[in-house]
Amino acid sequence: MHARLTDFPYLLETIVNSKMPTLVGIDGRACSGKTTLATQLFLSLKCSRSTIRLDDFLTCIPGITGEPLAKDSDEFIRHAQFLEAIRSLANGISFTLQPFDWRSGRVSTDSKTIVPADVVLIEGVSALSEEIIDAIRVRVFVVSDKHSQKEAYLRRNGPHFQFFWEHFLAPVETRYFKTCPWERAEFLFVGRGVPLAANVEDYL
Q1: Which residue among 20, 21, 141, 164 is least crowded, i.e. fewest CB within 10 A of its CB?
Q2: Secondary structure class of 95 (helix, strand, coil)
Q3: Maximum C-alpha span of the chain
Q4: Is there a cis peptide before residue 21, judged by omega within 30 degrees of 0?
Q5: What are phi and psi of 27, to 5 degrees?
Q6: Tens of pLDDT, residues 28-48
Q7: What is the mean pLDDT of residues 78-107?
Q8: How far apart are alpha carbons 176 and 130 in whole angstroms?
Q9: Nearest 5°: CA angle at 33, between 28 and 36?
Q10: What is the DSSP letter of 82?
């Protein structure tokens, strides 16, 4: 593993000093702290910036919104469209989608356009996917405690998300993490449940 452990000031400095436009991939397990990190970076950067969030590309939440998807299916998310959005922004081209609306549990009828910027923050599981890794200039993997992940996820979203977690999200994550995305990262960032003095390799 060649990634280095980093803190927020150094990561921010690295992004600011990068050749722009630049894409920043923030990968990690669900409930690792990816969104928190992306939000902190967005608020701290003074240049133009855009954000691509994987959560915007959901189609439904099986077990909650009623879609009869087969267990272990990945059809609850528009992953190909997520990758297409990354490629478009990498080429300086805006990308328009209909984002998932968490209030209704459905894809919105309204469109959202993600515009090119000096910094494009890409946040979500698979942000360091092999298919688009060459487009990502600053590669970050947020390290978290996988043993308490389910508990943290259900505490954040509610117990009614257990079916979705067990039969959809967790299996999809397991398949993706077999590709060892942390090995494609340049930086490791300490996230939820990992003591600052810990050996982060024990949590990968």
Answers
A1: 20
A2: strand
A3: 48
A4: yes
A5: -110, 170
A6: 999 999 999 999 999 999 999
A7: 95
A8: 10
A9: 130
A10: H
Do 26 and 137 touch, CB atoms closer than 8 A? no
Instruction: Give the strand pairing for 100-101 and 106-107.
Output: antiparallel
Place of tokens 């990068």: 18
Both tokens assigned to 68: 């009869």
Supply the pLDDT for residue 202: 86
How far apart, in whole angstroms, are the C-alpha atoms of residue 112 and residue 56?
A: 10
CA 129 to chain centre: 10
* CB-facing half-sphere around the CA of 93: CA atoms within 13 A: 8
**DSSP tag of 147:** G
Paired tokens of 96: 């328009």
Tokens 């967790």 sit at which residue?
170
Is 114 strand, coil or helix? strand
Whether residue 70 has pLDDT greater than 80: no
- Asked if 25 and 15 count as a contact pair (C-beta separation under 8 A), the reply is no
* Token pair of 181 as six digits: 């995305």
Per-residue pLDDT for 1 more than 60?
no
CA geometry: angle at 202 spanning 74 and 147, to 5°?
50
Phi, psi for residue 178 in degrees, rounded to 5: -65, -20
Residue 138 has pLDDT above 80, yes or no: yes
Q: Is 19 helix (H, G, I), strand (E, B) or coil?
A: coil
Domains and CATH numbers, the chain: 4-203 (3.40.50.300)
